[in-house]
Design brief:
This protein has 16 helices and 17 strands. The protein has helices at about 5-20, 25-30, 65-75, 110-125, 140-145, 160-175, 180-185, 195-200, 235-245, 250-260, 290-300, 315-335, 360-375, 405-415, 420-425, 430-435, and strands spanning about 30-35, 35-40, 45-50, 55-60, 80-90, 100-105, 130-135, 150-155, 155-160, 205-210, 280-285, 305-310, 340-350, 385-390, 400-405, 440, 450-455. It has a six-stranded parallel sheet, sandwiched between helices. A six-stranded mixed sheet has the order 12-13-17-14-15-16, with helices on both faces.
């Protein structure tokens, strides 16, 4: 099969995964208004809320996918919505009538995010016993609403700043910390995360719809657990700083805060026995595994023999790409995993340990490492094509979702005199693939359930 045809199949398979986790469709498929009752019917859980006791309904949200989620609730609840506010990444918007949309930066927070967090807190603080709060949460929500912690200790007030949080985020991204580790620290530097949003919503009742971008779908980690009790501690956060040896890169007020908290001198994040947790219901509506299931169905429809590895890939992106390349070459040479034509699927969210100053993201990095494996042993990769892409449409701080790799892509790179190893040393995968037109661009998808990796072997 010519690579352009293979690339079309890769695109079809990836977009089938996206369609399965479309937030607007998922809300409409599982939530409905029946008389004066709000009904939520998921595959493994059902909830019913009588709306009669509530004089107001508020819609609050943050994350890359919350705009279509809010649009779905506008369609379901209409004029019953009294007010609302969501905070999304720049460009991840849809037209809304009753819910205010604010935009801010990801993955490094900015001042608009601070304003967005303030707007959410104002609405939450105004909720009472006769208010129902519908909270919408998706990946990216943690960075999009920075609410730096402030506290008084020994008569002196400490106020963390946006710049403090920006420097912490950059240091953690550079060192290769996992999203769970990054969020653990974020929670302990925030007035909003680690379940603290629930303390502002109380005494109101809340039902919270969550789209997972976290391996294992841990509610306390998605968007730093805005509406879930937090099992981590200040001591855990301080341990992460020590694990990666980044104490010298973190502002002194942040390090002092973590140390004070670890010593028991600051109030912890929300814990499971807190009264506010009894007033909330969390509903998980979309996951990476559901996207993989849809991708699998699309690949089978195209005639491929399927191997679905896992939805839980973490760890180093380079090592993950080399592992996937080994599986692809085994299948190309000996049908070890599946009979050809084969499709090997996986999902998750590996990380890149930055050593260069180039531009890219984890999926583009994986595609370039995969391509370099092809360069080293081209005889093992006949008929192999690869796509790694982020379901939110933004791989790292770029406008690409990911990139392609194959023997044909390698030939194009060699014709342009591009060295994969040189660009890998600089962590400059974006410009490598941009030079040969093999970036994969979807634009903002308004969903976010980690990444999908698709290998085809013809």
């Amino acid at each position: 099969m010519h690579f352009d045809a293979a690339a079309a199949h890769l695109d079809t398979i990836f977009r089938a995964g996206l369609a399965r986790v479309d937030p607007y469709r998922m809300i409409l498929d599982h939530v409905r208004l029946e008389g004066g009752r709000l009904l939520v019917e998921m595959e493994d859980e059902c909830h019913e809320i009588d709306l009669a006791p509530f004089g107001r309904i508020l819609v609050l949200g943050t994350g890359k996918a919350t705009a279509p989620m809010a649009r779905a609730f506008e369609d379901i609840l209409g004029e019953r919505i009294s007010a609302g506010c969501i905070v999304v990444k720049y460009g991840h918007t849809v037209a809304l009538e009753r819910v205010r949309t604010m935009e801010s930066a990801h993955p490094v927070p900015d001042e608009n995010g601070v304003a967005g967090a303030r707007a959410l807190l104002e609405l939450a603080d105004g909720a009472d016993e006769k208010t129902l709060v519908v909270t919408l949460v998706s990946g990216g929500g943690s960075a999009l609403v920075p609410a730096p912690l402030s506290y008084v200790l020994d008569g002196a007030r400490t106020v963390l700043t946006l710049q403090d949080k920006q420097e912490v985020t950059r240091a953690l991204l550079r060192c290769g910390a996992t999203i769970n580790e990054i969020n653990c620290i974020r929670k302990h530097l925030s007035a909003l995360k680690g379940g603290r949003l629930l303390t502002h919503i109380a005494p109101a009742r809340s039902i919270n719809f969550i789209l997972s971008d976290v391996i294992g779908d841990d509610l306390s980690s998605i968007a730093s657990g805005l509406t879930a009790p937090d099992p981590t501690t200040f001591a855990d956060a301080l341990g992460i700083v020590e694990k990666y040896g980044v104490a010298d890169e973190i502002p002194a007020p942040v390090l002092d805060t973590l140390r004070h908290g670890a010593a028991g001198r600051l109030e912890e994040t929300l814990k499971p026995d807190a009264a506010a947790t009894a007033l909330c219901t969390n509903v998980l509506i979309g996951t990476n595994s559901r996207a993989l299931a849809a991708a699998r169905e699309a690949a089978a429809h195209l005639g491929y023999n399927l191997v679905c590895l896992t939805s839980r890939i973490t760890g180093d992106a380079d090592e993950t790409a080399r592992m996937l390349a080994a599986m692809a070459s085994d299948t190309a040479m000996g049908e070890m995993l599946a009979k050809r034509p084969a499709c090997i699927l996986s999902g998750g969210e590996p990380v890149v340990r930055l050593t260069g100053s180039g531009k890219g993201g984890r999926n583009q990095e994986m595609a370039l490492v995969f391509l370099n494996e092809i360069r080293r042993h081209p005889e093992l990769f006949q008929g192999v094509s690869f796509l790694a892409a982020s379901t939110d449409g933004n791989d790292g701080p770029t406008d690409a979702a990911g990139a392609f790799a194959s023997l044909e892509v390698l030939a194009e790179a060699e014709a342009a005199r591009l060295s994969p190893e040189e660009y890998l040393r600089a962590n400059d995968s974006y410009h490598f693939f941009e030079r040969i037109g093999r970036l994969y661009k979807t634009g903002p998808t308004n969903t976010n359930v980690c990444d999908l990796h698709v290998i085809l072997v013809h």
